[in-house]
Amino acid sequence: MRLESDSIGEKEISDSAYYGVQSARAKENFPITGRQLRPEFICNLAQIKKAAALANHEAGTLDYQRMQAIVQACNDVISGKLHEQFIVDPIQGGAGTSANMNANEVIANRAIEYLGGQKGEYSLVHPNDHVNMSQSTNDVFPTAGKLTALDLTKPLLLQLYALKEALEDKAEELKDVVKIGRTQLQDAVPESFGQTFGAFANMVGRTAERIKSSEKELCSLNLGGTAIGTGINTTPVYRRRVTPILSKLTGHRLTSAPDQMDATQNLDCFVSVSGALKACAVSLSKMCNDLRLLSSGPRAGLGELLLPAMQNGSSIMPGKVNPVIPEVVTQVCFAVVGNDAAITMAAEAGQMELNAFEPVLFDRLFDSLEEMANATETLTVNCISGIKADQNHCRMLLEAGTGTATALTPFIGYCKAAHLAKKALKTGEPFTELARRESGLSDEQLQKMLNPLLLTGKASLDEPEKTSAAV
Q1: What CATH superfamily classification does 140-229+251-391 receive?
Q2: What is the pTM of this model?
Q3: Could you give the angle at which helices 97-114 and 21-29 cross, rounded to 10 degrees?
Q4: 285 is a catalytic site residue
């Protein structure tokens, strides 16, 4: 064991530990989630420490040997080493100070080893004086949060674009299958499944672009602002160089915020990202609800779509298959909406020059990004790509329904069309048969008017009939 001290007092630390006294205290003080910091977040903390060491060396405030040792230690962490040494809980008091010091201590002790010393010989490399030089938790922690959100947004966008493509393919595959549209869950005018899935695809594309647009706000950093944005304890060279260096290291197009005090105390950029995620969740959940309704049955429901059978649906009802993929996606969407509420309140609760509630904000935002990406992938692969339409059942419902009465209204009038629709509902006779007998229109006229392509807005009366799927 080695004995370390801080402003609280002394504490024994295992000789094998790369973390130090402040990390150990935080581990004891914040037993909240039982989880570690995310690997992406840990790597981004190390990227920031590496950029700071390089910038401080350029500024002449950090000597070459210490800079090299810190950079080597950071590279270890970035490559995935020493992550088990990051022991603090993601949700912690102190506005992220424990996470920042955990990184400072691990990197310092690894750098000490590179200089030939033993862990805890902080005269060689000190967690605060050297690893944290020109920095504060208040600019390091939010910068790591932004970088991690950017990293996690990329796979989500890839999955959303893949879902959009799958929906477009399904729209093309089912473009000639006409079904009854529904408003207020009641029969409405016809539409094709090509239109249904085309609308889904456009919705997904729009949500992806909304998320992509919100990314821009994450690229504006308060790094170099230190405690409250004034840049105390930094140098002009450091402030000028640290963000460009970090940008090069991470591959993100990062810029220094025009007002670093504003960027330090206000977290509205994260609210914007979370809002875009919430909009995505709401839209995906609505689509999943539609898929469940369209596939309901198979005998006693709508039964127009056939979703891929993924697993048994009941421990007691033989043969039952449930829409488990839309169900799990909807549950993720619920979680994202709930996370957004926590993120909103965390951003609102900031006071004066700093927001102390970034830890829970980041924890919930990272969950939303990762879970939404995973849910979108399983929706695409395990559901959308394998959807089929029951064409015969769709034709039967279309012929039996009264939604086609709308197409006759311009020619026989609203009242007569309504009379025929009500009679069809009362007698159970298919509307198309009743219309042939009582509308006064010829079979040729009805054939054109009730052409499925015409009913879905894909043809006009003066065009020749293009399909044999007429009602």
Answers
A1: Fumarase/aspartase (Central domain) (1.20.200.10)
A2: 0.91
A3: 150
A4: no
